[in-house]
From TrEMBL:
UniProt name for this protein: Probable branched-chain-amino-acid aminotransferase
Protein family per UniProt: Belongs to the class-IV pyridoxal-phosphate-dependent aminotransferase family.
Keyword Amino-acid biosynthesis part of the UniProt annotation: yes
First-tier enzyme category under EC: transferase
Keyword Transmembrane helix included in the entry's annotation: no
Cited function: Acts on leucine, isoleucine and valine.
Pathway: Amino-acid biosynthesis; L-leucine biosynthesis; L-leucine from 3-methyl-2-oxobutanoate: step 4/4; Amino-acid biosynthesis; L-isoleucine biosynthesis; L-isoleucine from 2-oxobutanoate: step 4/4; Amino-acid biosynthesis; L-valine biosynthesis; L-valine from pyruvate: step 4/4
Membrane-spanning ranges: none
CDD domains recorded: D-AAT_like
Length: 284
């Protein structure tokens, strides 16, 4: 695989990052994951706008114009012949001369890394026709989950707790209310109404979330942006998650309780179909 590191396209085994990189030492960096279908990038504009915001919130500049970032995405997809998969992008505050809690002097070059992941079948229906099961775990992450930082230790531990419980993922709960999944936004459905937590510092503003809520409204579904509890979710008609890499994925069980019929719900599947179709059409 060819990867991009600080201006160069190199074989993954030849890529080098300093041991003093603040991404490595302090999780002082942000990232984006963008899906690829038919060798084209989905929702690039949304992802790049969120990237700019994440960087700004942490006092970091954009290392290059958005168009140049898009060109790198496209070049890597082409070099690695990715038809379906994802592009991962990470930007850190760079590598100062030594480890120090204080930010490095202005002008210290940022570290910019991109790589691709091939995932044949990504846009297909195999996984979605089965759905996923989740458990709930306490949300003990930091207070700025709206910034897409590379501090992913707790979400990673959450995934392992889910695995240990024999399920696929975990929904995190704070003050009795669901925040989001380990790497996705969480939804329930009641009748014709889609319910998902309102935006704020407590969750990441998903790019897929924004698109799916827009499609839901266009399809005459009602959208309620408010928090909900695990108990409410367990008595909902349907549940699902969204993220750039899972699109819309039905949830069939929460903490051992079957949701609705126990099979993927019709609204979730319909929203998935609309999302995949429309994103494919608009891909760049
Ligand atoms: N919430 C969290 C914590 C995430 O890590 C992600 C994606 O990685 C999402 C939500 C979904 O965001 P998006 O739809 O932009 O992928």
């Amino acid at each position: 695989r060819t990867v991009y590191v600080n201006g160069e396209y190199v074989a993954e085994n030849d890529a080098k990052i300093s041991v003093f990189d603040r991404g490595f030492l302090m999780a002082d960096g942000v990232y984006e994951v963008t899906s690829v279908i038919d060798g084209k990038i989905l929702d690039f504009e949304g992802h790049v706008l969120r990237l700019e915001r994440s960087l700004a919130e942490l006092g970091m500049p954009m290392p290059m114009p958005a168009d140049d970032l898009l060109a790198i995405h496209r070049e890597l997809v082409s070099l690695n012949a990715v038809d379906e998969g994802a592009v991962y992008l990470q930007i850190t505050r760079g590598a100062p001369a030594d480890r120090d809690f204080a930010f490095p002097p202005e002008g210290t070059p940022q570290t910019v890394v991109l790589f691709t992941q091939s995932k044949p079948g990504l846009a297909g229906d195999a996984a979605a026709s089965k759905g996923i099961k989740v458990i709930s775990i306490p949300d003990i992450r930091w207070g700025r989950r709206d910034i897409k930082t590379v501090q992913l230790l707790y979400p990673s531990m959450g995934k392992m707790m889910a695995k240990a419980a024999g399920v696929d993922d975990a929904w995190m709960v704070e003050d009795g209310m669901v925040t989001e999944g380990t790497s996705n936004n969480a939804y329930i459905v009641r009748g014709n109404t889609i319910i998902t937590r309102h935006l704020g510092n407590e969750i990441l503003s998903g790019i897929t979330r924004a698109a799916v809520l827009r499609f839901a409204r266009e399809a005459q579904m009602t959208v309620e942006e408010r928090s909900f509890s695990i108990e409410e979710a367990q008595t909902a008609d349907e549940a699902f998650i969204t993220s750039a890499t899972t699109f819309v994925m039905p949830v069939t069980e929460i903490d051992g309780v079957q949701i609705g019929s126990g099979s993927p719900g019709p609204l979730a599947l319909r929203l998935r179909e609309i999302y995949v179709d429309e994103s494919r059409k608009a891909a760049v």
